[in-house]
Write a structure and sequence with these properties.
Blueprint (H helix, E strand, L loop, with lengths): L16 H28 L13 H5 L6 E4 L2 E4 L1 E9 L9 E10 L9 E4 L7 E7 L5 E7 L6 E10 L2 E2 L2 E9 L2 E6 L8 E8 L1 E9 L6 E10 L24 E3 L8 E7 L5 E6 L2 E12 L2 E13 L3 E4 L4
């Protein structure tokens, strides 16, 4: 793979260059689509076993002190099920078209219906933290450090349906996400309508599997790593046994507020009265996949290193 504007990638083995290119495009599209679905599912998955708020006496409150923020320690076991999650391109009927995730479950991957996964902080010293502070430039930033998704969990969509057409099942095994850092504040130039933010995290999964309907051939991506970079002097992109991803700051980044290239969200109404959502999502990091298999054939690893997307502009506006 050759160097391209805004994106650099390490060259893969020339023996399967054409196959790699085709498989890579398919895998990237599927992987990032499922990752977005996972983030949405996590957002809507309210914990089922959370404790109710407990009132504190004046004496207890007198012993509580705070500075710029708070720490939140979590220890929750839960699982998520949904018969259907639907997305529509229009509100009109009967021409409404849907993307549907049917029979969605999130659990610990055990046999049968699956057990409870953990939403747990590693320790009291590594609890979720919410802070508000001012940086050296005098800018106020809200910062949230999230450890709650580090414990692995398994995601299953038994049927992906588009416009009433079944497209098969999706499975993402043992996804671990984080620790993650999300920071946001008003636009640096003081303009209104939205805010700046950046998000850094690392993700790993045992496998992503896509099976089209009842056809036994399954596309499987095994050993998925979304990080800042592969580390270690012995790192060989063609040999996953040499891969390492150590370092607390070895994270995949969306936006970079410290270096003047934040991600941005804006809501703007134009002169015709149409309101649109604008996103700018610069990103950097590496994507590694230990093996790609399809129909019983192994195609080997994928290594996309040195990703540099300086600007990715997206406009979302109502349909007409």
């Amino acid at each position: 793979m050759r160097r391209a504007s805004g994106l650099t990638a390490e060259k893969l083995s020339a023996d399967l260059h054409f196959v790699y290119r085709q498989v890579l495009l398919i895998c990237l599209a599927l992987f990032f689509s499922v990752l977005l679905f996972i983030l949405a599912a996590l957002f809507f998955a309210a914990p089922s076993g959370a404790a109710e708020p407990v009132p504190l006496s004046d004496a207890e409150l007198a012993n509580v002190t705070g500075q710029a923020g708070i720490s939140i320690y979590t220890s929750i076991a839960t699982r998520y099920t949904s018969s259907v999650i639907k997305f529509s391109d229009t509100d009109s009927t009967p021409s409404r078209n849907w993307i549907e995730f049917q029979n969605v479950t999130v659990n610990d991957g055990s046999e049968g219906s699956g057990g409870y996964y953990l939403i747990q902080s590693p320790s009291y010293n590594e609890a979720n933290t919410l802070d508000i502070g001012t940086n050296d430039a005098g800018r106020t930033i809200v910062s949230f450090k999230d450890y709650s998704r580090v414990s692995p969990r398994w995601y299953h969509v038994e049927d992906l349906v588009f416009c009433n057409q079944s497209l098969g099942s999706l499975h993402l095994d043992a996804l671990s996400l984080g620790p993650s850092l999300y920071r946001f504040g008003v636009h640096a130039d003081g303009t209104g309508g939205g805010f700046d933010f950046d998000y850094s995290t690392r993700a790993s999964a045992q496998a992503f599997r896509y099976t089209y309907n009842t056809i036994p051939e399954t596309l499987t991506l095994s050993g998925i790593h979304l990080v800042g970079q592969a580390t270690g002097t012995a790192d060989d992109p063609a040999n996953p046994a040499t891969w390492a991803f150590t370092g607390t700051n070895n994270v995949f980044r969306i936006g970079d507020m410290d270096n003047g290239n934040p991600a941005k969200i804006d809501v703007v109404t134009d002169t015709t009265g149409v309101t649109s959502l604008f996103l700018n999502l610069p990103m950097q990091g590496s994507l590694r996949v230990e093996n790609v298999a399809f129909g019983g054939n192994n195609f080997g690893p994928i290594a996309i290193d040195g990703i540099r997307v300086h600007r990715l502009s997206i406009e979302l506006r109502p349909g007409t």
